[in-house]
Fold this protein.
Amino acid sequence: MSLRHLCLILGDQLDRESSLFRRFDPRTDRLWMAEVHEESTHVWSHKQRIALFLAAMRHFAAELTERGWPLDYRRLGEHQDPDLGTALAGALRRWQPQRVRLVMPGDYRVLQQIRGTCSDLRTPLDILQDDHFLSTPDEFHQWAADRKQLRLEYWYRQLRQRHAILLEPDASPAGGNWNFDVKNRGAFAKSGPSGVPAAPRFKPSQITREVIKLVNREFGDHPGRLDRLDWPVTPAQSEQLELRFLDHALPHFGRYQDACWSGQA
């Protein structure tokens, strides 16, 4: 079967508002997602991080399928492909798309891997802008080209000016300074902060329970335990946790942004 577009969704791109879905035609296009070992082993990962990614991916895939979106989803344990490039090569041979579409990955290694696979199989690759960011890599490269020293603070400053973020009417910085780091080094007592309501906990669904078993089986030598995995794994759960943060934690976040306390690792 030949497709017009094979549209790749990476594990940190689970967003129905993504630019990937614009101009998507379910009659001629197909979504593609894959779970592969390398994405959990390239950087040695905690079991909870692995489980969080996989559970979120599977919940997102279930939502897409329920809404009728055509999706090819590759699960760990159901294929032998060690990395995204190998898995994608199989998909290109299977679906024979005219083009591959992908939102810019946050990992250069992944980008190079996908580019290499598409090049090897002579399939054009379209890289779409990630709308979650206020700038693009090309814009940063242009800004950095004539600078002898790169300091992230100055890049942030330019973005604030360009997008009018935290600026006074005369374009000066809100609060009178561009940088308040000297005031953001507060510390807690060993027992941690007081007066902060407990964060919501999320009972693992059937999908998440299956992922927990998978991670314990496939990544048993990785650090961490999964006997209390209560992270948000759906957009609705994540929004609930976000609102809790905005209401109770954000007003104090600057002062304590680097603070830690015992028992929270």
Q: What stands out?
A: The chain has nine helices and five strands. The two ends are 49 Å apart (CA to CA).
